[in-house]
Amino acid sequence: MENNKLIKIVMNSIKVFLIILTIFCLSISVELLFNVINWGHLPMDSYWSLLIDSLRSWGATVDSVELYKWSPDSIFYYDKVWIIGEGREPFFSEAQISSLINYVKSGKPISIFVIHGLPLRGALDDLVKDERWNTTIRISSNIYFGHSPSSLGVYISKGKNFFNFFLLRNVDSLTFVKFAKVECGNNCYPFVVDFNTDYIGAASTDYTLIRSAICYPFIKFSNCSYITIQNGFHTWEDVDYNYHQPHWNPENFELTKNILLAPSHFDFPCPVPEPYQISITSIPPCANPGDTVRICGRNLWRGKTESLGDDIEIYIGATEPVPHEYDTIVIPVRYSQNYTGDSTWLEFIMPDLPPGTYPIRLGHKAITFDAGDIIVPCPMVAEIPECANPGDTVVVSGVNLFPDIVIQIGDLIIEPISYALGYDTLEFICPSIPSGAHQISFFWDTLEIFSGSILIPCPTASASFPECADPGDVVTISGENLIEPIRIVVGDSVVSAVSYSEDRSRVSFRCPWLPRGRYQVNLSWHDMFVASGTIEIPCPHRCERFPNPITPNFDAINDFAQFEFDGIFVKPARIHIFDIHGHEIRTIDVPAGLSAKQHARWDGTDDGGNPVPEGVYIYTIEVAGEVVCEGTVTVAR
Fold first, then answer.
1. How is residue 229 annotated by DSSP?
2. DSSP class of 322
3. Assigned fold of 380-456
4. What is each CA distance from 169 to 92, 166, 174, 203, 407, in whole angstroms?
5. What gap in Å lies between CA 213 and CA 263, rounded to an integer?
6. What DSSP character marks residue 306?
7. Taking Cα atoms as reference points, which of 171, 377, 413, 386 lies closest to residue 290?
8. pLDDT in the model for residue 456
9. For residues 106 and 100, is the Cβ–Cβ distance under 8 A?
10. d(CA 96, CA 121)
């Protein structure tokens, strides 16, 4: 009996001991579980180790662990997991961890990107250069999450083309966060949503208003036709954030299909289906300010929701994927009717830019595509010589006369021999080709930049001039390559050519009315000197009458005597007709001018209009009271 009691006491003691041991073990388990949830209480190395083990226990693949360091932060890279942070505070609340576990257990691949307590101004420069970031998220060096040192952002990828976004902000005051609801139409395929954030702070209160989200219609995914951003969480209560997490449920914030939310510039981490990428097939090699420039390519299409900033933007001078403030930004003025496929285009007006070569990128804020270079303005020939002689070095002036310009004269192709450093002149050798005016054209990159004519060879520098001419006479000058328009100057008088010979060997003009004298005659072609000579006006010592004899019988053959003399046309004259006895039988007044010749003639009649008998008659011609000419004329009937 005593033994039984003793045994019972021992068994009860053992039970009590086992109960105490069980309670002790349970308390240890609870503490361990607490430590799993409250990672912030662990040392930094244990913190990362526990995180790695936990991720593996959830089914995540964690390979090739590498450590990057910069003071005082640590970065870890994993095959399927990226983690960045300081390790001072817990990354996730219980609700977040549960949500992560559920995502992993659903069989979908998971990638986590964590930013914890970093302003991220230049801190990621080294990591950005790492080629492995090409397969995941790349962050611009000017990005930061909030302005509190304990801001936290988490990106979770539930598959290649599915993204959810969580933004956790622990700040020193009450914070309001509002998300806009955005819907894109059936033909709007979003690429990036960009939150434009304003901060309005006062004392102990900080308000964060996310004003709008933008659908970027640059890339179409085969399984995506629209995006909806639902309402997210609204407020957090700031209650000693080291022990209490904000009250929110990540399931309340849903982002459907192919989208990345970012407070600033990011590259999209998902693979982009090749058939829907933007690509450029043609861009003009050059444009002048004010020109309408057309860029052709693939999927150059316009979005449908104007309020969401749907237009593609053209960044002129952009040399990096992420545009800068100093880039010139223009908006297309017209798009092709078809928005997808290989034959789409857009047009924009080239702004007034200094001469130069400008890289062109298409995109919108975070995402841009290289379209090539364009020269402003187009190469332009401003001046070429009017003529050239074979073998001459011909100088051409203009703007942006770059190398590889090709010159075509007639059917002959020639190349320049030199270019000026400022590309404002070029030189070429005039070829030996048949004389005449030839078509000359300049081409650059298949673009015709000038078309005109050049005379080869230049008009002759020597010509044959008549010794004298009377006013009103047609004067002919002989030479070589006398091509229209020849400018003729007699003394100080500019006269017009009246005819050119077909073989370009003669040019004719009418002698002007000038006082008696010898005059310089200058020929020029397009302000270029051609030839010069002298001519006497009128012809000297002339005293003529013809025919002789005259037969005034009204048969239109030798019916009158025509008189010519010095000063005819210039001054009035008087002709006196005498018989052999010295009796004046006829007086004829000759006016100055073109009608002089018509008056300077005698028809064989006296002043009364009566025919005079056959015989020899004497004539004298007076100009200004001076006898300038005298002789005889015979009348026969």
1. B
2. S
3. Immunoglobulin-like (2.60.40)
4. 12, 10, 10, 18, 67
5. 10
6. G
7. 377
8. 86
9. no
10. 27
Residue type, 136: T
Q: Quote the pLDDT of residue 383.
A: 84
Please enumerate in sequence order all residues whose Cβ is within 8 A of that of 244, keeping only pairs 6 or more positions apart, or say none.
Answer: 237
Distance CA(258)–CA(366), nearest Å, equals 16
Q: 278-376 — its CATH code?
A: 2.60.40.10
Which residue carries 């077909």 as its tokens? 502
> Taking Cα atoms as reference points, which of 385, 300, 370 lies closest to residue 335?
300
Query: In this structure, is the dihedral angle defined by the CA atoms of residues 442, 445, 446 and 447, taken in order, positive or negative?
Result: negative
Residue pair 268/359 in contact by the 8 Å Cβ criterion: no
**Dist. CA 252–CA 179, nearest whole Å:** 12
Low-confidence ranges of the chain (pLDDT < 70): 1-278, 301-311, 320-326, 338-342, 364-367, 461, 541
Q: Which two tokens stand for residue 203?
A: 């004392």
The amino acid sitting at 32 is: L
Secondary structure string (H, E, C) spanning 237-302: CCCCCCCCCCCCCHHHCCECCCCCEECCCEECCCCCCHHHCCEEEECCCECCCCCEEEEEEECCCC
Exposed / middle / buried, residue 630 (Cβ in 10 Å: 0-12, 13-18, 19+): middle
Q: What is the pLDDT of residues 395-450, one digit of tens each?
A: 999 888 888 899 999 889 999 999 988 888 999 999 998 888 899 999 987 788 88
Rounded to an integer, what distance in angstroms lies between the CA atom of residue 548 and that of residue 344? 91
What is the model's pLDDT at position 444?
A: 85
Tell me which residue of 449, 243, 462, 217 sits closest to 346, measured CA to CA.
217
- Rg (Cα) of the chain, in Å, rounded? 51
Paired tokens of 304: 């449908």
- Can you tell me which residue has the tokens 């308000």? 207
The number of C-alpha atoms within 13 Å of 263 and in the hemisphere containing its C-beta is: 26
Selected from 3.30.1330.10, 3.40.50.2300, 3.30.70.100, 2.60.40.10, the CATH number assigned to the domain covering 474-537 reads 2.60.40.10
Domain ranges of the chain: 1-34, 38-267, 278-376, 380-456, 474-537, 543-635
Q: Which amino acid is at 160?
A: K
